[in-house]
Amino acid sequence: MVLTLYHSPISPNSRRVWITLLEKGLEFELVDIKLDGEQFQPEFLAINPFHHIPALVDDDFNVVESLAILDYLEAKYPTPAMLPKDAKDLAIARMVQLVTVNELLPAATTFLPQILGLPGADPEKIEKAKHKIATVLKFFENLLDDRPYFASHNLTLAEVVAGTVVNVLPSVGIFLSEYPKLNAWHDRLIVRPSWQATESTPEAMEAFKSVIVARNTRQTQT
């Protein structure tokens, strides 16, 4: 059976799985879930009752939550290896993943109105988010050593999780020039074929913007 990834092209959570599938050279099918309500349809709820993307179907096994999907892919398809074996290196990779999910992504999401060109940005929240992002970027900078990737000479799951969020920061005026190791790390990622193949298109961003506008309009009217 071919792996099936239910995803949205503008979602960093989806993109990290998409990139991993490409980096591992796996055969898979992409199913685009339009976030205007398709995620609440019975067919998708049968796969993920929490109506979130991404979701991966492997034969009759459904995997939800992106980090769980990445672990599943690494365990079932271990070549190429995308997690270090050394205890310290593994801890670094895991820290990068979890700090991205728990600290960096929530802060970056504060900029969503700005990214989409919509009103509603909260200046106070943005300042707090900028401070949080700076803390994360400094932490990442200090974790990088003379190896090209976090704790490895090869691409790891830390890269696909952190890279898909760091990638959006320049669009909100947050640049990596103060973090030379992280900047070089980011430059290595964005030239990889898997990154370029999964880059969100302007059309996808416009479609997502329409969903957000419609959702905000409904909330205003209720």
TrEMBL record:
Q: Which residues form the signal peptide?
A: none
Under Enzyme Commission nomenclature, its number is 2.5.1.18
State the PROSITE patterns in the record.
Answer: GST_CTER, GST_NTER
Q: Name one Pfam family in it.
A: GST_N_3
Q: Could you tell me the keywords of this UniProt record?
A: Transferase
Q: Which residues form the GST N-terminal domain?
A: 1-81
Q: Where is the GST C-terminal domain?
A: 86-208
Which source organism does the UniProt entry give?
Nostoc punctiforme (strain ATCC 29133 / PCC 73102)
Top-level EC class, please?
Answer: transferase
**Keyword Repeat: yes or no?**
no
UniProt GO MF annotations:
glutathione transferase activity
Tell me which domain of life the UniProt entry assigns to the organism this sequence originates from.
Bacteria
What protein name is recorded for this chain?
Glutathione S-transferase, N-terminal domain protein
Concerning InterPro entries, the annotation shows: Glutathione-S-Trfase_C-like, Glutathione-S-Trfase_C_sf, Glutathione_S-Trfase, Glutathione_S-Trfase_N, GST_C, Thioredoxin-like_sf
Listed CDD domains: GST_C_family, GST_N_family
